[in-house]
Request: fold
Amino acid sequence: MTIDDYADWAAAAAKVTQPPASERLAYLGLGLTGESGEVAEHIKKLLRDGTLDQAAMAEELGDVVYYWACLCSALGRKPSDVLAASKAKISARLAR
Reply:
């Protein structure tokens, strides 16, 4: 499965429409924020306790990707294009 295939599935599951309603964008953005916070919690526990539940953190990363892919679709962007643009931007920054 490609990231674009996954995004198509995720957008259908989340009932993303074009153009997206502002409430749907807010829901997806808050979902991304919440899941990112759960990833941060795993890192916090690593710093506090010295242990990392890698399986649980990986599961949360999957949730982050779900909301990110839905937001890409809501904006009418293919995730592969978003990733390519990000790679180009960061590569240019690293080259300086």
About this structure: The chain has a mean pLDDT of 97. The CA atoms of residues 35 and 63 lie 6 Å apart. The first helix runs from residue 3 to 13.
